[in-house]
Amino acid sequence: MKLILADAFEAFNQYSGWIIWNLFLAFIPFVLSFGLYLRPSRKRSGLWWFCFIIFLAFLPNAPYLLTDIIHLVEAIRADYSIWITTLIFIPLHLLAIFLGWEAYVISLINQSYYLKKQGANKFIVLSELSTHGLSAIGIYLGRFRRFNSWDLITQPNILLNSTIDDLTTKKPLLVIWITFIILIIFYWLTKQITLGTLWRIKQLFYDLDAKN
Fold first, then answer.
1. Which ranges does the record mark as transmembrane (predicted)?
2. Which pLDDT score, from 0 to 100, does residue 75 have?
């Protein structure tokens, strides 16, 4: 038993240690989206814009977890027992990917709700597409260039030059476009499921209140 636990701990550190940190980064924009988009006031103060910039800077960290599927593949290929693979690697990694992606979807749903509340319904689709585009660029810069969100402040010149190079080079641009399309498709599907689930939960509570 001790040997199994030791192997499980070693396996987690080697292939799954990223989960807590990456989820923390993914949930920063998720939490900010509630303060930015669901608050009762319509005024946009300097603090609001500051939080909005942080929201945009960290938002790609949420869909970025989709690319962490490579860690799951590496873990499965590693020489660990079937128990560690099926009871630790697969459920843990899939849960982390799901939570990160759902955080992204809900953040954009909150953003769309805010635009609707502002009477800017016609800009909802454009805002979603723009966000997907920026996220696709951010995912590429994070996965292949190994940049982080805070590099916008610590090394903006290097980040800007790398972004321009990638957007004007055929292969990186192709990867970014493919990522953009995947985000659009996955987001649309997950958005329908999430909104449907939220509606059912709301309806359930409404029915319970009506009975009482």
1. 18-38, 45-62, 82-102, 123-142, 172-190
2. 76
Q: What letter does residue 12 receive in the DSSP assignment?
A: I
Closest CA to 79 of 14, 2, 1: 14
Look at residue 90 in the predicted model and tell me its pLDDT: 85
Identify whether the C-beta of residue 108 lies closer than 8 Å to the C-beta of residue 128. Answer: yes
Q: Which backbone phi and psi does 43 adopt, to 5 degrees?
A: -75, 140
Which among 35, 68, 65 has a CA at the least distance from the CA of 50? 35
- The tokens describing 139, both together, are 């995912």
Q: List, in order, residues 6 or more apart from 90 with CB less than 8 Å away.
A: 72, 76
Q: Which of 44, 70, 52 is nearest to 134 (CA)?
A: 52
Q: Where are the beta strands (DSSP E) in 83-138?
A: none
pLDDT at 6 over 60: no
Q: Which domain range does residue 56 map to?
A: 2-211
What are the distances in angstroms from CA 99 to CA 5, 49, 92, 133?
Answer: 26, 26, 11, 21
What's the domain count of the chain?
Answer: 1
How far apart (Å, rounded) are the C-alpha atoms in residues 153 and 21? 20
Q: At what angle do helices 156-167 and 124-143 cross, to 10 degrees?
A: 110
pLDDT in tens, 14-70: 656 678 899 999 999 999 999 999 988 777 889 999 999 999 999 999 999 999 888
